[in-house]
Amino acid sequence: MDKIDILKKDKFEHRLLYILFGLSALFLLNTLNRVIDFSSAISWLQSFNMVFLSILIQAIPFILIGILVSSTLQVAIPSETIVKLFPQKKATGFIIAIFAGVFFPVCDCAIVPVAARLIKKGVSLPVAITFMLSAPIVNPIVIASTLYAFPKQPSIAFLRVSIGILIAVIVGVIFLFFGEKKSILKRSLDNTHCSCDCCSNRIQNKTGIIKKLELIFMHASTEFFQVGKFLIIGAFFSSLFQVCISKDIFNNLWGHKILSLLVMMLAAFIFSICSTSDAFIAKTFSVQFSTGAIMGFLVLGPMIDIKNMLMLLASFKKSFVIKLIATIFIVTFLILYWLVFLL
Amino acid sequence: MEKIKSGKLNIDAVLKVLLLLGFATFFFITVKSGTIHMYVHPRIVSYIKIGTVVMLAMSLFQLKEIFKPQRKQVNFYQYFFFIIPLLMAFTLPAKEVNIGIVSFASNIDSMISKNSTVQSKAQNNDNYIQDNSQNANNIRDTYNTQNSDISLSVNGKEGESKGLKLQDNTVVMDDSNFVKWLDEISNNPLKYEGKRVTVSGFVFKDKQFKPNEFVPARMMMTCCAADMSIVGLPAKYKLASELKKDSWLKFSGTIVNGEFNGQPMPIINVESAEKIEKPQYEYVYPY
Fold it and tell me: What is the ipTM of this complex?
């Protein structure tokens, strides 16, 4: 029974591959149609290549850091310690989740493997979700870069952090009440067949440092290939959107407050810019868009985007990921809907 | 635990090693050759080095597995996703992102930051040493200069705390301080009214511009090539219509408070222009 389920999941990946090819072929044809001469097409491909690779180059080191942390948690720290750190009692759990993010000053892509590992180790889901969503926003580097990008407007940084925490807590609480009864973890080959040493909880006390280090790296490389695949897909689609979408979209939004907010949120999702520097991109939008709309960009980006979504798919079931993303989008939109008219 | 395959070579481990080494090699070559600057912001370079070491370590540990029997069924299709970027990385040469292609880069309204107010001292204040004869290596060196506050006598006000200094009463905007000067001038239009300025950049023209209008622009990168945007002060020049788009020139002129596109803002009245070589490091950085 197990093996059949797992093979079905692999079919999903095959289908993803075909869809990837199909879509990119379509985009390619579409752009080639708009292009008259062949040299422009080559130039287009080179630009796409640069954008695509740059996203990967920038993200891979942070993913590796996140994976190393996750693997260390798995191999070296017993589940009991971790669960004690994030108390099951929801109120304190949430508070700790919010501030735990301060100790992870890394790109938002590094947070996903860590959060997934926490859940696998037994941390309660709502608390882990709040951690995953708030960490990229309370990240001190993110706050610093927001302050730097909007000088003499510390209100922007303040709003970003407070709205971000608010949304993270609300989404966590929603999952508290509408909890997942069945397991949300994706059952992949490595999860079920990981009866090798690295996944056994019994080894922590028995083995020495060298052996533990070896296990951490072995585990990290497995995770790298699981997660990296989705990172690459995410970067591919994000780059495709960036080189294909016409920039005129941004010019036609004067005065449409709600539409601006939606466009900004969608832009944050699609462009998948690292949270430590998306403030500068938001700055370039600040000329045309109201502060409320920019908040949509600043607050949604760190929490969820194409890259993150695909990395979540590496560890969690599709249904859960869809629910999570929909909840985040709706909560963010509802909260900012009111602010757009005030700011 | 079943030993499903017990051939001589564990193909799964071999593939992992090859892919990890492939990425590590690509990173190493790109950093070594300096091409990395076309992909990402200089501050990321240290992280790239860490990443390269980690991937090397991972591949070394994987090497041990090569001769052990493969433990479980492996989906080889997943490695396909890794081969694509590696192929692209090694076959397509690195090149500057084409301005017209990246989505939000040529949005002209985003170029001039109207909302920016006077910059307060930023916490990590990497001061860019202003240097007229800007050598390409200075980009990395000036970036690494730690907080050395260049105390300047001339005006002793805000701009100077960031290392911005007038030379012979002239604003010199070049590779290392382009964005800082841009913000400084946009925020203090009155302070720089009438000052002379020299700026090096490429010619950017938009359909909406009048024939004598253009922007001596630079591409600004905040994190990686995916987020580039065009920045610059708008300029008016009677010979602007003769300027070829995307050509690199050094312009001299005066800063005045005029209007551009219907908005009041500081602009440059260009008096002369000379052709220059495209700088080795094209991109400018906001920090």
Answer: 0.73
